[in-house]
Every structure is written in structure tokens, then in C-alpha cells.
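Re: that backbone. C-alpha cells:
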């Protein structure tokens, strides 16, 4: 009788054993896939941040060159803001991707950029590659 009871117990527990095994396989595969996908998304987002910071650094370089050539090309407040903008760019932790303050610093850089552009009377903001003005197509 004990052999028959053990056989039924094994049959009844078969589904639960397969469920547990499937759960463990799914968890292991999900962790592996999540790591790969996370790396890809992180790489893409890091590239976007680097591209945006490069845009801001280029603007700062041009503005600094303009001020160097003609001190009166921008107002005093704009010149001070350009200097502060350069300091912000210099302190951005581009080589420290694990810095938890990157987004806060990036938002501060964006804000300072908008302030400078406003002081100069321009209306320009960073547009990612692929963003086309409305009405233009080739």
C-alpha cells in the first residue's frame, strides 16, 4: 500500500515540481535578458546625454570666442552667464556614469542654456538628431 501512496504523491506533486522548475528557468533567463537589454538602453541614453552636452559645449565655445573677439557683442549679464555656463559644463561628471546627480546637473545646464539664449534674444533649444522642423521633408 505504501508504494501505491508514494506513486500517487509523486504524480500529484509533478505539476508543482514542473512549475517550480519553470519559474527558476524563467527567472534565470529573465535576469540574463534584462542585463543585456539594460546595457543597450544605458548605452543609448548615455550617448544621447553625451551628444547633448557636446552641443552645449560647442555653443559655449562659440560664445566665448565671440566675447573674446568683441567684448561688447553681448551684455554684461550674458557674459557672466556664459562664464557660469562654462563652469557648469566643466563640472559635469561625464566620466562618472554612476553619479546619481547627473540628471539634476543636466537639468541645471539646460536651464542655464535657456537663460543665456533668452538674454541674447535668441529662441533656440537643443533638438536631437532626426528631429526635423515641421513642413520640411526630403
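Recovered sequence:
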Amino acid at each position: 500500500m505504501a508504494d501505491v501512496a508514494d506513486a500517487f504523491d509523486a504524480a500529484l506533486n509533478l505539476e508543482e515540481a514542473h512549475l517550480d522548475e519553470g519559474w527558476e528557468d524563467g527567472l534565470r533567463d529573465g535576469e540574463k535578458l534584462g542585463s543585456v537589454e539594460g546595457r543597450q538602453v544605458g548605452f543609448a541614453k548615455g550617448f544621447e546625454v553625451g551628444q547633448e552636452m557636446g552641443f552645449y559645449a560647442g555653443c559655449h565655445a562659440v560664445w566665448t570666442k565671440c566675447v573674446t573677439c568683441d567684448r561688447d557683442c553681448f551684455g554684461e549679464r550674458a557674459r557672466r552667464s556664459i562664464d557660469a555656463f562654462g563652469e557648469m559644463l566643466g563640472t559635469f561628471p561625464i566620466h562618472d556614469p554612476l553619479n546619481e546627480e547627473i540628471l539634476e546637473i543636466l537639468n541645471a545646464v539646460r536651464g542655464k542654456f535657456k537663460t543665456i539664449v533668452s538674454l541674447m534674444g535668441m529662441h533656440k533649444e537643443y533638438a536631437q538628431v532626426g528631429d526635423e522642423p515641421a513642413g520640411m521633408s526630403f
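DSSP finds three helices and no strands in the chain. The CA atoms of residues 64 and 70 lie 10 Å apart.
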